[in-house]
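pasting for ref
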Amino acid sequence: MVKVITDSSTLYTVKEGRDAGIESIPLCVSIGDCHGRDLQMDMQDFYRRIEAGQIPTSSQPPIGDVLDAYEQYKDQPILNISMADGLSGTYQSAEGAREMAKNREQITVFNSRTLCGPHRYMVDQARKMAEEGRTRDEILDWLKAAADRTESFLIPQDFSFLRRGGRLTPVAAAVGSLLKLKPIVKLTADGKKLDKFGVKRTMSGAVDSIIRYLQDKKLGERHLLYISHAAAAEEARRMKELFAELFPGLEIHILELSPVFVAQGGPRCVAIQYIER
């Protein structure tokens, strides 16, 4: 059976991943004198440190951890479904570990071109297909199609986090200089950068602009919507109610962002993502 490996972009802890039948390798996070792994930090302490002026940074999982996972399942075909290349070095690290592995011919690394909610869904579906006895090539064919049927939007509260991370197109970076406005950025189709989608005066205006775009996409029963937030649970709940009212039959999930994504999007950022089933 194909073994599915991934990273903490799925927002699965190591234990949650193993309980679900996958290996989820956490990225690394540092803030001040605190150095740890994604989804293993105390979030209240993490946010307190940010409020005190400490700036978090993140990096890909140690290549040794990825290599250990490959060798743990050396008797199986392995499919590592990575978060978007370009937003992190995670994909390149996974490929580098594959080149070092004795069982490299058994390993395929797939660039999901997305992150968080849609990434999680792709991993879940790949695992289900593996359990059904589908081959690695069959799973890859589905993943390639799925990667073309997802889009992601981010509404940051503090644009400086994204600007420092260097994951913006030049146009999107310029938007960040606008004061007292709500920039909206959208993941590019290749999953490598965040580009300008719009600028609004309020959070509700920003959400409305995304809603109008998604209405043109005719979201409904064949889609999943993910609302992921960084300590903005009430805003996420209100958004879910609004989307549920406007998009009958749409399945909606709320997720809390991990330290890695708070480090990039900043506190109270909200991501809105969809993927076609």
